[in-house]
């Protein structure tokens, strides 16, 4: 083979390798773009689901049933035609019966604090606490 044909062959090989490289590069770029498009489509569907869910919740929050539920659960309200029945276990009833209500009302078990300062004004109390020695 002559040099001329050798140069032509080398040039053809170079261009064919370059052409194959460009085709593979373009296909890879298309593949990456398709993956990115699929990822964005998945995110869009998830966002649409969230928006639909929040719209449904908003529509429910605007209904009277929602207001009624909130009033019953959080504000301890009831409708005029309803009766409230409190379900309590037998054990809770027995424990409640053991409580001496009159003793709680009379404040017998409440510890008495500083009866010395009970009838003093605020200024007298401050002077008393500053000038007296404290225990501990």
Write a short abstract of this structure:
By secondary structure, the protein is mainly alpha-helical. It has helices at 3-61, 64-74, 90-98, 101-106, 122-131.
The 3D shape can be described as: elongated
Extended strand count: 0
- Main structural class: mainly alpha
**How many domains, as an integer?**
1
Q: How large is the share of residues in beta strands?
A: under 5%
Low-confidence stretches: none
Quaternary state of the chains: single chain
Measure the end-to-end span: 113 Å
Q: Major sheet: size, sense and barrel closure? A: none
Helix content class = 55-70%
Which value, in Å, is the CA radius of gyration?
43 Å
**What is the N-to-C order of secondary-structure elements (H for helix, E for strand)?**
HHHHH
Number of helices: 5
Q: What's the average pLDDT?
A: 85
